[in-house]
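Exam prep: given the inputs below (a chain plus magnesium ion), describe the expected output before reading on.
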Amino acid sequence: CASASLQTSVEVLMKSNKRAILIFLPFQVLIIAHVTAGMVNLTRHEKEKYFLTATGEKELFPSLHDPHSRELSVVIPAYNEELRMPVMLDEATEYLERRQKQHPPFTYEIIVVDDGSKDKTTEVALRYSRKYGADKVRVLTLVKNRGKGGAVRMGTLSSRGKVILMADADGATKFSDVEKVEAGLNNLNPKPENMAISCGSRAHLEQDSVAQRSVFRTFLMYGFHFLVWFLCVRGIKDTQCGFKLFTREAALKTFSSLHVERWAFDVELLYIAQCFKIPIAEVAVNWTEIEGSKLVPFWSWLQMGRDLIFIRLRYFTRAWKLQSPHKTD
Ligand SMILES: Nc1nc2c(ncn2[C@@H]2O[C@H](COP(=O)(O)OP(=O)(O)O)[C@@H](O)[C@H]2O)c(=O)[nH]1
Ligand SMILES: [Mg+2]
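Solution:
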């Protein structure tokens, strides 16, 4: 009889413990999100301050704080892209050279950001630098892998463009669609402060992709869309497209406050933009699924889901705050 009553009391205790854990779980998550919040990381390694000229000399990258001196900067984050990137770079340089020939005042630069690749990404990009000159193609080799957001930010901070395009190294978006995102940016009439962002979008392709993907991936996709909408960004259907155009001013304002350096950085960037009331356009672009994605379906989605929850909680607890742009080394 004594052992039976002991057993019942243990069961009652366990039940109430479980209930307590469930009740306190949101607080625990909130505390973890707050305590583990990192700062904006704008510092760069000494080696990351320079690019190589065509003759092999080291030259200092300029700063996003400087006035613009090119019409367009193209920032390409690249992690182990020795195979996919040449196709993209050929398409981009061909388009940009043609545009410059037709309209000489148009000036451009491409900045390939090798995010600590283990393959020959830097060597491949340097071939283009030698072919077109380091005024047009520059390579920023990061000492350590930061993640796509960290790489895009480092490239953007080193760019000279009046407008800055981030474009994936796999060439999934047709490069000439830059004209579409430019039109989207101009339609926002960014004057006088020149704040605007134009996002390439694959939302018009969603029905096709649902038809091609497994039920599980479709479920993950809708789950992610819901979390983005619920927690961070409303009014933009495709936050993740790797083809986005910023005015120089909008890039400085948003990237100066960016904390997330992994896949969910686009969401935080747009969240920051909406907090600053920067106008955002969403423009349909041509997009082809290119083999060799680095996104590991389940784990990357899980990581992104956690990042979205943490973004919201960290701004909520003011562990993260919007920053005003300041110069760093
Ligand atoms: N900097 C950086 N870029 C990455 C990393 N993983 C992927 N990328 C780049 O992000 C872009 C998109 O990657 P991709 O694998 O095509 O992803 P998906 O198109 O979303 O499936 C490409 O330019 C990649 O090189 C990473 O860890 N760091
Ligand atoms: Mg891709």
